[in-house]
Write the structure tokens for this entry.
Amino acid sequence: MTGKWHVGQAAGTVPWKRGFDRSLNAPAGGFYYGDGKNAKVFLNGEELANDSITPR
């Protein structure tokens, strides 16, 4: 799964708990504003730093 996940990540509904083996996603809200508190990207359930170039 890759993309914007806007089906309840703030409430705990996340792709890695919904059957996806691998995922790269951004929760809804603030993704396009890199310095915003909601600008988060997750790789397989782990939050990446906003300035990450390669996954950890």
The chain has a mean pLDDT of 75. The radius of gyration is 11 Å. The CA atoms of residues 31 and 51 lie 13 Å apart.
